[in-house]
Specification:
Elements: H1 2-17, H2 22-27, H3 30-59, H4 64-75, H5 77-89, H6 95-110, H7 124-141
Helix pairs in contact: 1-5, 3-4, 3-5, 6-7
Length: 145
Amino acid sequence: MTELLKFIALGRNYQKLWPQENELAVIFVDSKIIALSLLLQKTVPAIACLSFVAQVLYFGSDIIPRALAMSLLVISMPYQALIWLGYRSQQRLNNALVNWCSEIRVQMVNAGMNVQPVSSKACYMDMAKLLNDAYAKLNKAFELP
């Protein structure tokens, strides 16, 4: 149980750190899962309640246990997305992504920022932090007057 809570917390942190940029959405599935997770967090409670009420009204009170189980399944969907994001945040980057992150780090250092080196054992959370800093600071560093 604590492992699931750990992944949910990691997923929330990863969701906050990952930059929602169109360029990244084309390359990484993470942006799409984060958008889906945010949408589910807003809409799922209403869908679950509506589903429960509709089933009870249509089929009667004999269906309450089944309707409740279905509503609980629907309510769990945002948490499933957060668990996936938490798991993803701890996966190690492949060599191509580590090299790409190193190139971004070099650009940030050339722009005068202090950035820690990217290790060969970096994970997606490390890449999210680097990309978040790059989008927040590099865009300002290259603004035209």
